[in-house]
Amino acid sequence: MHTEQAGWSAQEVARATIEADGGTPCIEFVAEAQCCPVCDGALTVYKSRSRQVITLEAGAFRAIETLKQCRCDPTHPLMGSEALSRLLSQRQRYGYDLIVHVGCARYLQNQQREEIRAELQRRGIVLSAGSISHLCDRFLTHLEALHLARVVPLRAALGDGYPLHIDATCEHGKGGLFVCMDGWRGWVLVAGRIASEHEDHLRPLLEKSTSLFGEPIAVVRDMGAGGAKAVGPLREKAIPDLICHFHFLAAVGKKLFEQPYRLLRKLLKSSHVRTDLRDLLRDLRRYTATGPYQGRFGKGVIREELLALVLWILEGDGTKDLLYPFALVHLAFFQRCREALQRACCWVQGPQSPPERRAIEQLSALIRRFDADARILPAVTALESGWQAFCELRDVLQLSSAELPRADVRQQQRKFASLEARRMCEIEAALQAYRAELGERIAASQNPGAPSASPSVIILRYLDRYGERLFGHPVRRDEDGTIVAIVERTNNVIEHFFGDEKQHLRRRLGRANLGRDLEDQPAQAALAANLRHPDYVRVLCGSLDNLPGAFADLDAQALAQASPLVRSNRDSKLQKCIRTLIKGEKTLDPEPDDRTSNRCLTR
To answer: Which of 134, 346, 501, 569 sees the fewest Cβ atoms within 10 Å?
Structure first.
């Protein structure tokens, strides 16, 4: 093997030789320096050292490095091979190109460890699953260090300012990840693990973001108390503190539906109507054979339309339900039950067979169960009244289903900044008029017996408290004064980011339920998503092909600024303490006296 075959030219390496060493090729790397950098004196050979090296392009080989020292003063720094240092860092055996290849395969292509191992094995590189994980960790560490080292050009690329979108995510209360994102470009500026969404955990990350990339032109967030307090210093500087319209509507809806919806869900579950409807549908499916069937409802044939009716009661028209409270699935189920018998006359027309009549009678008996509980009708009435008020507010805010976080991105239309700015002004004027109308409704309906928590009162309270943070979105103009960008009124840019990253994590791990996996995911993995943005990569290193060289340019000081990879959960120290205490108990009394143990248990 020659240096040209390994990917290095003769100019990069002074001389390279191949020796037989148990089948492993050997390559010599001689320090390229010709004079001492301190005194400009002559250099002499100090010693040679070797180590096993694995790179993506050259595979596995033994690198023999010849060091040089100053002939006049041996205390001057030793000179090593720059060509070797461009391949891998000191005291490491894996090349930068291999680190980048594994990291991109893991976090950009979302491959599993065994897939990466198999692909490398086809290249003649054999690594264990643990080595793959180690390379992924090194990739994330170097990527964060490079992100911090390129702060100045990245900040310059942000231009005149950027909208700061902040949010945190977790999986069933675990794995808090807080992200600060540029809403116009989708770049993750800062990401960090948090134990909770308390102000004390959010503020350091916010301060880090603003110190690195400057103060934003606006902050877009949810309605959490921790986030509101964390952005307090920015709010004091007259930076707009905007609330996501989706989160505002969701908070209003949850307040409107909280008690009656919980009661309706409980009553529907206790009635077992859904369970019996599924049993009914299963029995009806047996009658779909070509000939008459002898079953639960006698011998005969049941038309497909009756099966469709029962399935419609259970699942509706088959479209995906929106998130609560933008869809009340239990209320919709009850409403379909109320309409079922009327639709049965329309869907199953003409003479009905005896099995069909018996099946419809059974369906009617199931629906009549709701009449036996007097609590259902008041809950449904309250929900329908609140739903009408919620839909009114949603129409005023003009928040379509395509603008919700988990909406189908194919339904989203491209927004023109100037038209969106005009639409926001119209929405603000319509909301002011609606707010005045609510006040008139409340004044007209006030009487001693009127409820104090009517839908109009609840909505007006929320508008009084948060209305000033719903509008005032800054815009960016070009030299001619034309609006070219406007701050998003929702936090969808970061909500979509979290949703995509969870899907990518499921693909990497091969599991649907993330559980502790999201909690063990390092925060630096969020920065890897920036590599999907060509404009970010262009500023960071030019192209992904240049990423190994950019990693090689990082010095020890830059790597020291990177945060340590954190995978343990917030109770890891306590769990370690528990294991230590239990182990201590066993060592103190390995064979306790039975009588003593019995006395302890009976106390």
So the answer is: 346
Contact 544, 531 (CB under 8 A): yes
Name the helix (H) or strand (E) containing 43: strand 43-55
Provide the sign of the torsion angle of the four alpha carbons 381, 386, 389, 390, taken in this order. negative
Position 568 scores a pLDDT of 60
On whether both 206 and 298 belong to a single domain, the answer is no
Q: Are 176 and 197 in contact (CB under 8 A)?
A: yes
Q: Is residue 389 part of a domain?
A: no
Q: Is residue 385 part of a domain?
A: no
Amino acid at 602: T
**Torsion 340-346-348-351 (CA) sign:** positive
Handedness of CA 380, 381, 382, 384 (dihedral sign): positive
Listing DSSP states for 243-298 in one string gives: E-HHHHHHHHHHHHHHHHHHHHHHHHHHHTHHHHHHHHHHHHHGGGSSS-EEETTE
Determine the pLDDT at residue 588.
60
CA 204 to chain centre: 21
Tokens 């003009």, residue located: 398
Q: What angle do CA 235, 236, 237 make, to 5 degrees?
A: 90
Give backbone dihedrals phi and psi of 171, rounded to 5 degrees, phi first: -120, 105
For the record, the structure tokens of 97 come out as 């190109």
Low-confidence ranges of the chain (pLDDT < 50): 1-21, 449, 592-603
Q: How many CB atoms lie within 10 A of CB 172?
A: 11
pLDDT at 23: 63
Residue 279 burial by Cβ neighbours in a 10 Å radius (0-12, 13-18, 19+)? middle
Angstrom distance (rounded) from CA 399 to CA 499: 20
> Helices then strands (H, E): number in the chain?
24, 12
**Burial class of residue 580 in the structure, from the number of CB atoms within 10 Å of its CB (0-12 exposed, 13-18 middle, 19+ buried):** exposed
Q: Which residues are within 8 A (CB) of 19 and not within 5 positions of it... i.e. 6 or more apart? A: 25, 26
Residue 240 lies in a domain: no
Q: Name which of 415, 471, 470, 523 is nearest 140 in CA terms.
A: 523
Query: Residue 360's pLDDT is what?
Result: 94
Domain that holds residue 303: 251-379
Is the domain of 331 the same as that of 456?
no
Contact call for residues 65 and 84 (beta carbons, < 8 A): yes
CA-based end-to-end distance of the chain: 78
Beta strands at 293-295 and 241-243: parallel, antiparallel or unpaired:
unpaired
User: Quick one: pLDDT at residue 109?
Assistant: 95
Alpha-carbon gap, residue 121 to 54, rounded angstroms: 13
Distance CA 53, CA 86 (A): 13
pTM score? 0.85
- Asked if residue 93 lies in contact with residue 51, where contact means CB atoms within 8 angstroms, the answer is yes
Cα distance between residue 602 and residue 384, in whole Å: 57
| Alpha carbon 456 to its chain's center | 35
Q: How far is residue 531's CA from residue 542's CA, in Å, rounded to a whole number?
A: 11
Q: How far apart are CA 383 and CA 377, in angstroms?
A: 10
Number of domains in the chain: 5
Q: Are 183 and 164 in contact (CB under 8 A)?
A: yes
E runs forming strands in 406-541 = 475-477, 483-486
| 443 located within any domain | yes
Nearest to 134 by CA among 85, 180, 99: 99
